Amino acid sequence: MHTLTPQEIIIALNELGLTQTDIKDRTGISQASLSRIYSGRNGDPRLSVVRTLEALYQEVIAKTRA
Fold it and tell me: In 3D, which of 22, 20, 12 has the Cα closest to residue 36?
């Protein structure tokens, strides 16, 4: 099974209707950090950021499947 990169998670969340502002508001990750991850300028974010993005992604996916 393919594990999504942080950049892919942000892209997937965007495709599911969340903006970077929505992601920021729901995770507490700064807009600047999200932008750097999205653009590929930060290919190795902190583990805490990765886990937070993964948790939001799982939450959103679960709601879309419900």
Answer: 20
Q: Measuring CA to CA, which residue among 11, 33, 37 is closest to residue 24?
A: 33
Long-range contacts of residues 8-12, Cβ cutoff 8 Å, at least 24 apart? 9/53, 9/54, 9/56, 9/57, 10/34, 10/37, 10/38, 10/53, 11/38, 12/57
Residues in the chain: 66
Query: What confidence tens digit (pLDDT) does each residue in 4-51 have?
Result: 999 999 999 999 999 999 999 999 999 999 999 999 998 789 999 999
